[in-house]
Amino acid sequence: MVAGGIRRVSDLPPALQAHMVQGARAGFVSRMLANVIDFIGLFVALVIEYLCVAAAVFLWNPRSFSFPAPSLIVAIVVGSVTSWIYFAVCWMTTGRTYGDFVLGLRVIDRKGRRVHAARASARAAACVVAPIGIVWVGIDRRSRSVQDILCGTVVIYDWPHGAL
């Protein structure tokens, strides 16, 4: 029993619980939830991209307008490039995507430093090409995804100051 009658970590206030894991490696569930948030955001971004292209086609020739029907290959390439740019820019600038921000996660290198452009780009490419690599987090004793192992990165809990 701890001071104040607290028996379990779950009995502590959420801010104190969060403080206790600050800097620890993030687990599978947190990382998957962050990915779901990012997927939703990327889906919305792709819909906006599509609507912008449709608007441009309409403005170019309004009389014969019809909504564009991109091929599957074009959709895959545009979605992949958009995702790659999003992940790479987020990780090289702040170390976190929007999903990471919501879940209090940050991507760093093995030495605890910010991920630089080449590493962030390689990690983003690995995440786009083989997103299933995150499943390895649930198996690896150090909570690393395949992308983390290949690119020398670590995902930690890192809430912004004042968020706790």
What is the helical fraction, as a range of percent? 40-55%
Shape: elongated
Let me know the largest β-sheet. Answer: 2 strands, antiparallel
Over all CA atoms, what is the radius of gyration?
Answer: 20 Å
Average pLDDT, rounded to a whole number, is: 89
- The oligomeric state is single chain
Alpha carbon gap, first and last residue = 24 Å
Order of helices and strands: HHHHEHHE
How many strand units?
A: 2
Number of domains: 1
H/I helix tally: 6
Strand content: 5-15%
Secondary-structure-based class equals mainly alpha
Strand order in space, largest sheet: 1-2
What ranges have pLDDT less than 50 throughout 5 or more consecutive residues? none
Short description:
This protein has one domain. The radius of gyration is 20 Å and the shape is elongated.
Overview of the molecule:
By secondary structure, the protein is mainly alpha-helical. It has one domain (about 5-40, about 70-155). Helices cover about 55% and strands about 5% of the residues. It has helices at about 15-20, 30-60, 70-95, 100-105, 115-130, 145-150, and strands spanning about 105-110, 155. It has a two-stranded antiparallel ribbon. The longest helix has about 35 residues, at about 30-60. The chain is elongated, with a radius of gyration of 20 Å. It starts with 13 loop residues before the first helix and ends in a 7-residue tail after the last strand.
